[in-house]
Amino acid sequence: MKLTVKKLQGGECCIEVLPTTSIFEIKREVAGKLAIPVEEQKLLLLGRTLADEQTIESYPTIKDGTKLNLVVKKPDGLLEASMKYFKKLGMADKEATNAANKLLKIVEDKFNKLSWDDIDRLSMDCLLEECGQSRPVVENEPENDDMYGL
Description:
CATH architecture of the largest domain: Roll
CATH class of the largest domain: Alpha Beta
Number of domains: 2
Strand content: 15-25%
Order of helices and strands: EEHEEEHHH
Structural class: alpha+beta
Number of strands: 5
Oligomer: single chain
CATH superfamily of the largest domain: Phosphatidylinositol 3-kinase Catalytic Subunit, Chain A, domain 1
Low-confidence stretches: none
Mean pLDDT: 89
Distance between the termini: 49 Å
């Protein structure tokens, strides 16, 4: 059956699914078509969030031609992402918060020590990476993974 996934901020895509297709699989396909990471997607049907582990057949109101709404969630910042990571390692909330704050301080200190040339290269690398490209290697440029001092 065909479904339409409509992004609330504009844009949509059509996908072909089976009754056994999971919501998570739909999100992966949407990620490929609309370039929205799976973890930032929230699929809704009639205002209700669809669960990743559920299949199409577990939602009887989803039929051929159904439109699902896509809400794009704001990605976690470094603080939130690092807190989640530290909690996954088994740290308590307070311990994870302290470790995340310490990490942010280290990153800020390292960034503040970069030269403008380093910041320019780092920015360009980030932009190119988003486009699936890499900066060409220039003669006399160090081939060091930590060239930014991070």
